């Protein structure tokens, strides 16, 4: 039964015109030798003379006023570091700075940091922590959106307990619903998800009497630096941030490291010694960000010919205790709310509500996976209601060039989905299988999902907020240094960015240097997020390399700076959410085949297929790695990764209980790349990092729906959920 | 240091018994449960708060001996070692191939699985169904206890403070077939939500023996000789109840909890169907 992928690096582009770009051929990964040999220094490998360890005292209750903290006398050489040791503002700067580095008067979630204990011996630190008594006066906590309406529960944020609330309208949506023959409705839930980067979070702080340096496992050195500027209240030139080799991130190291960067900086200043803070896995699971759980209500107005007239979509995300990046996550979810479909008129409402639980945050896909699950299942179920084949129905609504997006921007490029779907059907045998499984009681099913990912920052973020700047420097020794703040975190940036520069210069890869970013050396080219590194930062490096190429004969050092300029085709109004939310889109189509055990309701995945258009792949093997990893992570999210909250506490607290897939759980995926070319991306590249995750779950859910003949409305599609769904109906 | 970790590594079983009596040290074979249970902050040595007695290396505890009436398994025989032993029943081997992952099977021992006495212990339903008994030794001698009287509750058993589990004795019995199913969340390295072991013997069209043992659905393994007796040596044509009714008799015994891995409803519902399916399969066999 096991289907082998024919060749993971094969690119069989559907467009006859695109021949394989020379840059796409795979090269050895630049970060592999150091990681495989053990030479690479992860944060836990760092050791400084006189270094102290640190561990965090955390809130054990979801919501309370701190009445008192009883700290026993400290042995010599041991220190407590808390809010009183924050020289600047006790607020971690992200979109706002309302989340404290250390809780002061109140705690708002289980796991919120209250203080650090630092000292030379870890066993002693644990003993001291066990001796500290915190007296709480508990406040009724907010656990769900419904609690916001309970007058006995004081709101956690603002008056209505909402971090943000938006509405987008396009067209005469009331009219569409007024004229509708019927309205098709559905509610779609998705659960939280843990990143499970291999390396838990960690930072180290060093203070030399004048400047502070923070080392850390991170995606965004300048986010960390900005947060330190706020927390220390110091000038930027006294703060240095250095990325340590980072063992995976998936968005989990976008905003969180800023908190613990502050912790080690304050501790290093207070103690005058270097301080290392590295989480255990269980601690990491309890206190770091998660994917936003969602509840999406969809209503579709259908006319008497069975055609869609309009859609109303209501998106609610659980933000946890602090706003973090939630508004931006919600925006991405809203901008993907109608999926890859042309819907005449729409109203999309969205909000993020506050709860007394661990904050949710950035995670591969960033709101889009929740939206695509809802819209794909909704379109699938509507097709079934109309007695139409789901894929044929979806095909008849596909966006094409010139069509309006949710935000009334225009699809500026060709939408390659029709050809991708043809290829997907051919590879997977979808049409025949879907018909057969619908009729037979085999408990087998096959499902398809169609999706996009908007490349890089949402809206005008690149132009107005990030303003990326890169430096390319020819050194005295004729080597060329890439000076950017983007990090290698396992995704392949060291390889792809070097390739872009080397290929442009026409030199060998070995001549290009790209070390872990150090804010003393590199300009702010923005965070390593939003699948932007290759397209935006790589694009700037390609431009810089083009300019450097003409000056390579000059003696000595040559420095080229390049700054981001928004492509002229983008129009965007951030206040009204109108225009082109993204400069360009990458596209994907997945098919998943499953078998559902009739007794245990376990979902066995027996086939996975994917067709992707990421523009020109800068390295086919690296893109293949993103695809295979994204599929595995997506299959886990869809089927087994259950992360439940009970009274504000996570039920699954470690990797024994929070189950991610093993290599035995799923078959090897079969996939191909379609290479359209994007004129503003380096060598025609678009985005690839998040896309492969986005479509997996809806394809699984559609396959299960096909197999069991009942609607699937929830992720993960766990055996318990299917069991209960079947028995509720009986 | 906070505590001094005292560790003993005896040269013989005799010495192990003596150290166990003298110090009350905690026996540690493969450590795959204990090292997790007593783990501390990364970088610190696990500390059970009392001395530790390494026994996993003792040759006397690490052997499989086949006798005429029984198979005797040393308590510290690793799962991997059991897989290569001809005398080990196939149902136990099947259970082991679904247990944890190769590295854990290389360290973990069947005696450790028994003494950990977790309701979800993978080998326990199989050992219950095989009606194995346990040889417990101390400096004064040995006693033998049936496994269903040894494990008394979650993490609780009849091992005395001076005893060490020495051997697992599996009586030889003829079976026409067996069934083992583990319902975990993934295909490797998962704790069981339900584990099911079934054995049967059919001769001349009659069920001569049937044993059903289920793990992870009650504080200890569920097995009912009383219900089994209603099937044994009764001509199939005279069976008064349908298999669904027979399975339903297990309902009061199946008392699973809702926890981080599964729900009461799922565990109970699926268990009853597993029992029913096994009974149906057995009663359809021609003997």
Please specify the SSE layout and strand pairing.
The complex is a heterodimer of chains A (730) and B (287).
Chain A: H1 32-37, E1 52-58, E2 64-70, E3 79-82, E4 106-107, E5 113-119, H2 122-131, E6 133-138, E7 162-170, H3 173-179, E8 182-190, E9 202-207, E10 212-216, H4 221-232, E11 239-243, H5 257-271, E12 275-278, H6 281-287, E13 294-302, E14 308-318, H7 326-335, E15 345-353, H8 368-385, H9 390-395, H10 417-428, H11 430-439, E16 444-454, H12 461-466, E17 469-474, E18 480-483, H13 493-505, E19 512-513, H14 533-549, E20 558-563, E21 572-573, E22 578-579, E23 585-596, E24 603-613, H15 620-639, E25 645-646, E26 649-650, E27 670-673, H16 691-694, H17 696-708, H18 719-729
Parallel strand pairs in A: 1-12, 10-11, 14-15, 18-19, 24-27
Antiparallel strand pairs in A: 1-5, 2-4, 2-6, 3-5, 7-15, 8-13, 9-10, 9-12, 13-14, 16-23, 17-18, 17-20, 21-22, 23-24, 25-26
Helix pairs in contact in A: 4-5, 7-8, 8-17, 13-14, 15-17
Chain B: E1 7-8, H1 13-23, E2 26-28, H2 34-37, E3 52-54, E4 64-66, E5 70-74, H3 79-83, H4 90-97, H5 102-107, H6 110-116, H7 124-129, E6 133-138, E7 141-146, H8 147-150, E8 151-153, E9 156-157, E10 164-171, E11 177-184, E12 192-203, E13 206-215, H9 225-229, H10 243-248, H11 264-284
Parallel strand pairs in B: 1-3, 2-3
Antiparallel strand pairs in B: 4-5, 5-10, 6-7, 6-10, 8-9, 11-12, 12-13
Q: How would you characterize this protein structure?
A:
The complex is a heterodimer of chains A (730) and B (287). Chain A is an alpha+beta fold and 730 residues long. Chain A has three domains: 1-15 and 413-460 and 569-730, Aldehyde Oxidoreductase, domain 4 (2-Layer Sandwich); 48-140 and 195-287, Aldehyde Oxidoreductase, domain 4, CATH 3.30.365; 461-565, Aldehyde Oxidoreductase, domain 4 (2-Layer Sandwich). In chain A, strands 3-5-1-12-9-10-11 form a seven-stranded mixed β-sheet. In chain A, strand 13 (294-302) and strand 14 (308-318) form a beta hairpin. Chain A is globular and about 80 Å long. Chain B folds into two domains: 7-56 and 64-171, Uridine Diphospho-n-acetylenolpyruvylglucosamine Reductase, domain 3 (2-Layer Sandwich); 177-284, 2-Layer Sandwich (Enolase-like, domain 1), CATH 3.30.390. Chain B contains eleven helices and 13 strands. In chain B, strand 6 and strand 7 (141-146) form a beta hairpin. The radius of gyration of chain B is 20 Å and the shape is globular. The chains are: A alpha+beta (730), B alpha+beta (287). The A-B interface holds A 44, 53, 55, 121-127, 278, 280, 599-602, 640, 642, 644, 651-653, 656-657, 659-662, 664-665, 719-720, 723-724, 727 and B 1-2, 36, 40-44, 101, 183, 185-191, 194, 259-263, 265-266, 269-270, 273-274, 277.
């Amino acid at each position: 039964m096991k289907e082998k992928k024919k060749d993971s690096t094969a690119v069989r582009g559907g467009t006859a015109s695109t021949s394989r770009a020379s840059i796409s051929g795979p090269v050895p990964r630049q970060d592999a030798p150091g990681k495989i040999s053990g030479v690479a220094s992860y944060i836990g490998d760092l050791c400084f003379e006189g270094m102290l360890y640190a561990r965090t005292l955390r809130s054990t209750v979801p919501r309370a006023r701190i009445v008192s903290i009883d700290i026993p006398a400290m042995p010599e050489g041991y220190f407590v570091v808390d809010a009183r040791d924050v020289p600047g503002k006790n607020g971690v700067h992200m979109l706002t700075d309302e989340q404290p580095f250390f809780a002061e008067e109140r705690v708002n979630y289980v796991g919120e940091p209250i203080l650090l204990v630092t000292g030379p011996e870890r066993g002693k630190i644990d003993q001291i922590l066990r001796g500290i008594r915190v007296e709480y006066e508990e406040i009724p906590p907010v656990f769900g959106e419904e609690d916001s309406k309970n007058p006995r529960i004081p709101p956690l944020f603002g008056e209505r307990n909402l971090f943000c609330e938006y509405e987008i309208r396009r067209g005469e949506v009331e009219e569409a619903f007024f004229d509708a023959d019927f309205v098709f409705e559905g509610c779609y839930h998705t659960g939280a998800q843990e990143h499970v980067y291999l390396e838990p979070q960690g930072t180290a702080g060093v203070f030399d009497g004048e400047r502070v340096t923070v080392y850390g496992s991170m995606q965004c050195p300048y986010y960390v630096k900005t947060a330190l500027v706020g927390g220390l209240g110091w000038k930027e030139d006294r703060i240095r941030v250095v990325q340590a080799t980072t063992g995976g991130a998936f968005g989990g190291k976008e905003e969180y490291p800023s908190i613990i960067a502050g912790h080690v900086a304050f501790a290093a200043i207070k103690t005058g010694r270097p301080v290392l803070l590295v989480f255990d896995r269980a601690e990491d699971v309890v206190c770091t960000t998660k994917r936003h759980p969602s509840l999406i209500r969809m209503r579709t107005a259908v006319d008497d010919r069975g055609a869609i007239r309009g859609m109303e979509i209501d998106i609610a995300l659980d933000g946890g205790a602090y706003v973090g990046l939630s508004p931006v996550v919600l925006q991405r979810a809203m901008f993907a709310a109608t999926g890859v479909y042309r819907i005449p008129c729409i109203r999309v409402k969205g909000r993020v509500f506050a709860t007394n639980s661990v904050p949710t945050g950035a995670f591969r896909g960033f709101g889009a996976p929740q939206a695509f699950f809802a819209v794909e299942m909704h379109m699938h179920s509507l097709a079934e209601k109309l007695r139409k084949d789901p894929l044929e129905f979806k095909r008849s609504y596909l966006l094409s060039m010139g069509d309006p997006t949710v935000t009334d921007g225009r699809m500026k490029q060709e939408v390659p989905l029709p050809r991708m779907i043809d290829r997907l059907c051919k590879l997977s045998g979808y049409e025949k299988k879907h018909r057969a499984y619908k009729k037979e009681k085999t408990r087998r099913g096959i499902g398809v999902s169609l999706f996009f990912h908007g490349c890089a920052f949402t809206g005008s973020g690149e132009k107005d907020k990030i303003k990326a700047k890169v430096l390319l420097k020819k050194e005295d020794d004729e080597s060329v240094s890439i000076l950017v703040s983007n990090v290698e975190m396992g995704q392949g940036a060291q390889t792809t960015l070097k390739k872009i520069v080397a290929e442009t210069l026409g030199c060998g890869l070995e001549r290009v240097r790209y070390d872990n970013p150090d804010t003393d050396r590199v300009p702010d080219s923005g965070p390593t997020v939003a699948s932007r590194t290759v397209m935006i930062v790589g694009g700037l490096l390609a431009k810089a390399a083009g300019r450097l190429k003409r000056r390579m004969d000059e003696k000595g050092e040559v420095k080229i700076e390049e700054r981001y300029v928004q492509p002229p085709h983008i129009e965007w109004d951030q206040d009204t959410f109108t225009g082109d939310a993204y400069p360009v889109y990458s596209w994907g189509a997945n098919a998943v085949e499953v078998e559902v055990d009739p007794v245990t309701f376990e979902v066995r995945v027996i086939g996975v297929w994917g067709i992707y258009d990421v523009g020109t792949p800068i390295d086919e093997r690296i893109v293949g790695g993103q695809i295979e990893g994204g599929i595995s992570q997506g299959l886990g999210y869809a089927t087994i990764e259950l992360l439940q909250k009970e009274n504000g506490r996570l039920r699954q607290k470690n990797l024994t209980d929070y189950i991610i897939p093993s290599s035995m759980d799923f078959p090897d995926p079969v996939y191909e790349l379609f290479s359209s070319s994007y004129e503003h991306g380096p060598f025609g590249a678009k985005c690839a990092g998040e896309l492969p995750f986005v479509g997996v779950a809806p394809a699984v859910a559609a396959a299960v729906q096909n197999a069991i003949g009942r609607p699937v409305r929830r992720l993960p599609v766990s055996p318990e959920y299917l069991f209960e769904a079947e028995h509720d109906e009986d | 240091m906070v505590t001094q970790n005292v560790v003993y590594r005896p040269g013989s079983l005799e010495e192990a018994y003596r150290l166990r009596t003298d110090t009350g040290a905690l026996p540690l074979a493969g450590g795959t449960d204990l090292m997790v249970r007593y783990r501390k902050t990364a970088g610190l040595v696990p500390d059970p708060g009392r001395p530790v007695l390494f026994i996993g290396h003792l040759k006397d505890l690490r052997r499989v001996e086949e006798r005429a009436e029984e198979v005797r398994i040393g308590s510290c025989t690793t799962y991997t070692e059991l897989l290569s032993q001809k005398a080990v029943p196939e149902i136990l081997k099947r259970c082991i191939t679904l247990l944890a992952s190769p590295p854990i099977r290389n360290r973990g021992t069947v005696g450790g699985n028994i003494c950990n006495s977790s309701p979800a212990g993978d080998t326990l339903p199989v050992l219950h169904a095989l009606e194995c008994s346990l040889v417990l030794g101390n400096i004064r001698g040995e006693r033998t206890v049936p496994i269903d009287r040894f494990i008394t509750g979650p993490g609780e058993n009849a091992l005395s403070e001076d005893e060490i589990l020495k051997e697992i004795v599996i009586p030889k019995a003829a079976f026409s077939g067996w069934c083992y199913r583990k319902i975990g969340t993934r295909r490797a390295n998962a704790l069981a939500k339900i584990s099911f072991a079934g054995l049967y013997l059919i001769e001349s069209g009659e069920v001569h023996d049937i044993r059903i043992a289920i793990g992870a659905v009650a504080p200890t393994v569920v097995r009912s000789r009383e219900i089994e007796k209603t099937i044994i040596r009764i001509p199939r044509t005279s069976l008064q109840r349908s298999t669904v009714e027979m399975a339903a008799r297990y309902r009061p015994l199946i008392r699973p909890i809702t926890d981080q891995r599964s729900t009461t409803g799922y565990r109970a519902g699926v268990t009853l169907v597993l029992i029913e399916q096994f009974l149906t399969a057995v009663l359809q066999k021609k003997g």
